[in-house]
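User: I'm putting together a small comparison set for a docking exercise, and I want a reference complex before I start. The sequence is below, and the ligand is phosphoric acid mono(formamide)ester. Could you produce the 3D structure with the ligand included, as structure tokens?
Assistant: Of course. I'll restate your input first, then give the structure tokens for the complex.
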Amino acid sequence: LRHFLTTEGLPKELLTEILDTADSFVDMSAQQVKKVPLLRGKTVVNLFFEASTRTLSTFELAAKRLSADVLNLNISTSSTKKGETLKDTLMTMRAMHSDMFVVRHSDSGAAHFIAEQVTPDVAVINAGDGRHAHPTQAMLDMLTIRRHKGQFEGLKVAIVGDILHSRVARSQIHALRILGAEEIRVIAPQTLLPRHIESLGARVYTDMNSGLRDVDVVMMLRLQKERMDSALLPSESEFYKLYGLTRDKLAFAKPDAIVMHPGPINRGVEIESAVADGERSVILDQVTNGIAVRMAVMSMAMSGQLAEKNRAQPDID
Ligand code: CP
């Protein structure tokens, strides 16, 4: 069995194969073909130790469309509340002959830890671990960009907001670089920028208007208050004034620039409603594309294609 834990260091061919496979599922859905038997007889367990709307729902739908049996363990009412450890919870779920765990956890590195515990019996898909990675979110974002812009070559992409606490930004930067985007910009106040972000291949801007100038894609991020020290929380009104995406600020991007957001959105904090709901917004396309990307990742992981293409990669075995 195989894992999908990060976009970092993966070959371009593999990411392209995920996108191509996802595209075929989008086309299938457009032709009203809702189900395929690729995971028939397999059991997928969603283990979400953190809140989720989009990721949990689209993983569940994706697994069902692949004909898997799906179990969503409700962590808030599970025996973890009686003191059961993460490892004992994992072993308990593995003992039910699970084939795949989809895992979200607040600790960076949790998905890797879980994969180590359950290899080789269970494939692990990372649905977001701490500030570290959210690889399927990055891949659904890449699919959305490719479907709207056709290719990555020549694209300038700006990622705006709370980069410091964002697992989405890290996974996107890795994926964009691998797929050949021309320029990746991060726009944020100094206090919300990780140290050495330039080493990932991103250009840093602290001013919205210059950072957005002539970009093709504007990716907004939420302030991740749950990961911040409350004493360091920025004022929401001040943040909106300087970094909120308004129609005025969007005018600095290319006229055909698309507006993205992984969700959940905080309207009036990082984005104006008129922009979030405007004609350049592809935010709901991102949600829809999440089903196809998760179908692609789950079917490829289960069939071992990831392993064949990435035998040398530490995160995919
Ligand atoms: N984008 C994202 O991960 O959303 P959820 O937290 O709702 O799953």
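The domain at 135-282 is CATH 3.40.50.1370 (Rossmann fold). The first strand starts at residue 43 and ends at 48.
User: Thanks, that's exactly what I needed.
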